[in-house]
Design goal:
four-stranded antiparallel sheet, 299 residues, Rossmann fold, seven-stranded mixed sheet, 13 strands, 2 domains, alpha/beta
Length: 299
């Protein structure tokens, strides 16, 4: 029965955002960070959210983490409706349902605690016994490959090692969703590869759903699915699961990028296509006898 439920979950949305808006107000100024964003991530997926600075990707991550609330729309994570959560419910949600990894290690780790103490700290608010906390923290250290660094403080660890401990901290209360904000942003290429390999391993072996926001091409070329955010909306998607399967079969790689159509039928046409075409402000949409969609300028 458990196996059947798990198989069903793989095709069920773990994260579902529909028409998501976030408006920040500063004095007399309003900034719209998210403009009707839509996103679906299934259970046990690992997905990269890609976007330039100011695109809205970090705002989205903070909402999914329960650190911020949307202005409008709907956002569901598992059984949690994040738009309707009270402050107390948000605290419980952050404590048990979601793990968060910041770009800078000093936001993830306390400098005066050792690696194993940092991992154990979030468990202090749970009902775990001391022995359970000890066993679990040792297991997480082994998982991230830092058993021999258990008593080292953050300043005694490399940047890559600090992020590995941060991942263990994020997993300490067994969250179903792990969120990472630019996890390789301050690492060299080799350390970045190691951290990404670890996150892919966690996704495969534990089944944790992982969402990474980034502008680093190293990340979005290392996961099955990468979604681009532009102007506060999801714009394009690269599904590389086919690419990875082709590599396994030694077939020449082919990457396909798709435009995303939201539930209202809106789609963002890339600027480079618009500039290279003769489309004006008004277009007709049609369908050929072969079922192909066509756009025709009305100017």
């Amino acid at each position: 029965m458990t196996e059947k439920r798990e198989k069903k979950k793989l095709n069920d949305p773990h994260v579902n955002c529909v028409g998501l808006f976030k408006i920040f107000k500063t004095s007399d100024l309003e900034v719209v960070a998210l403009r009707g964003l839509e996103l679906t991530v299934n259970y046990r997926e690992i997905v990269a959210i890609v976007g330039a600075s100011g695109s809205g990707k970090s705002t989205l991550l903070n909402i999914l983490a329960g650190y911020d609330f949307p202005s409008a729309g709907s956002v569901q994570v598992g059984s949690h409706n994040l738009l309707q959560m009270t402050e107390r419910e948000a605290v419980i949600y952050r404590r048990y349902e979601v793990g968060f990894i910041w770009q800078q290690a000093n936001q993830n780790l306390f400098p005066y605690l050792s690696a194993i103490e940092n991992i154990q700290l979030p468990m202090m608010v749970s009902n775990m016994s001391r022995n359970e906390r000890q066993n679990k923290s040792e297991h997480l250290l082994e998982m991230v490959g830092l058993t021999n660094r258990r008593n080292h403080k953050p300043i005694e660890l490399s940047g890559g090692e600090q992020q590995r401990v941060s991942i263990a901290v994020g997993l300490s209360n067994s969250p179903s969703l792990l969120l990472a904000d630019e996890p390789t942003g301050e690492l060299d290429e080799e350390s970045g590869h190691d951290v990404l390999d670890l996150m892919n391993t966690i996704n495969r072996e534990i089944g944790t759903t992982i969402i990474i926001v980034t502008h680093d091409p190293l990340i979005y070329s290392s996961v099955n699915r990468a979604i681009t955010i532009k102007d506060g909306k999801t714009s394009t998607e690269i599904d590389q699961s086919v690419l990875f399967r082709r590599k396994e079969k030694k077939i020449p790689p082919r990457i396909n990028e798709y435009l995303l159509i939201d539930s209202s039928g809106n789609v963002q046409i890339p600027k480079e296509i618009l500039s290279d075409s003769e489309l004006g402000r008004r277009v007709r949409i049609g369908k050929t006898s072969k079922g192909e969609i066509t756009l025709e300028s009305n100017e």
